[in-house]
Each structure stands twice: as structure tokens, then as C-alpha cells.
Amino acid sequence: VDGVAHALEGPQAEALVQRLRAQYAIALVDEFQDTDDRQWAIFSNVFGEGPLARAVGLEPALFLIGDPKQAIYGFRGGDVRTYLAAAVTAELAPPLSHNFRSRPGVLAAIDALYAQAGYTDAFLTDGIAFHPVRPGTKRVDADLQRDGGP
């Protein structure tokens, strides 16, 4: 990260952006909520709408996936405010309306918990809100069992 950030501040920055984009057509950053300002500047300048990408005439090709409620890497520089700032610039940010990882009962319990706290009042950082989701599958515990056991 340090080397790329430094190179993007140097005289060959535009050439570096062009070379990276020639090698990597798009960038997909998963767990974006754990990104810091320097990492965001790199992705924005190489794949997003940052000044270097604009200077060389490149179209944005950046996909960010994250959930600010899951930001856990503050101890190593991850900053949920970076996520929130990037979210403001997002052209298209479709919410995920279905959860395929959790059972329906777990989703209902989580929804009840956040509803009781007031969907936006449950967080210490402004700009973070809870959005209820629907189960992505109709599976029940019995579907995951064999001969009555896991």
C-alpha cells in the first residue's frame, strides 16, 4: 500500500494508472468497510473517479462491497468513515434485500432487536442504519440434518 500510494504521488502516476488498468479491467473490493483513507485513494485514483483516472480519460470500473455495521478493523487503520464518504460518491448502490447465510428465525430476531432500538439510533456513528432483509431461502433446520442430526 505504501509503495503504490507513493508512486501515485510521483511523476509517473498517470503511466502507473494506465498500466494497472491495462492489466486489471475492473476492481472489486470486498469488505470495503475495513478500508482506510490511503487504500480508498488508491482504488479511487486507479479504478474510480479520482483525479488520476479522470486525467487519463478512464471510465470508472470499481465495485465496492461492504457493510458499515461489520467494520471491525479500526485497530489496524480501517475507518468506517472512509466507507461512508465513498458511499456518498457511489453512482449505483443497490441494497442487498435477501440474506442467504442466516436462518429465517435469526433474521427475525435481529430485526426485532434493531426495531426496538430504532433502526438508526442503534449505532454510534451517524450515517449507519439497519435495513431489514428477507431470508434468501426457505430452508429449515430439518433440511440440514441427516437421520435427525446435523
Automatic annotation (TrEMBL):
UniProtKB keywords: ATP-binding, Helicase, Hydrolase, Nucleotide-binding
SUPFAM superfamilies hit by this protein: P-loop containing nucleoside triphosphate hydrolases (SSF52540)
Gene Ontology annotations for the cellular component aspect, listed alphabetically: cytosol; exodeoxyribonuclease V complex
Domain of life of the source: Bacteria
InterPro entries, sorted: DNA_helicase_UvrD/REP, P-loop_NTPase, UvrD-like_ATP-bd
GO BP term, example: recombinational repair
GO MF annotation list: 3'-5' DNA helicase activity; ATP binding; DNA binding; hydrolase activity
Signal sequence coordinates: none
Domain UvrD-like helicase ATP-binding: 13-86
Name assigned to this protein: UvrD-helicase domain-containing protein
Upper taxonomic lineage: Bacteria, Pseudomonadati, Pseudomonadota, Gammaproteobacteria, Lysobacterales
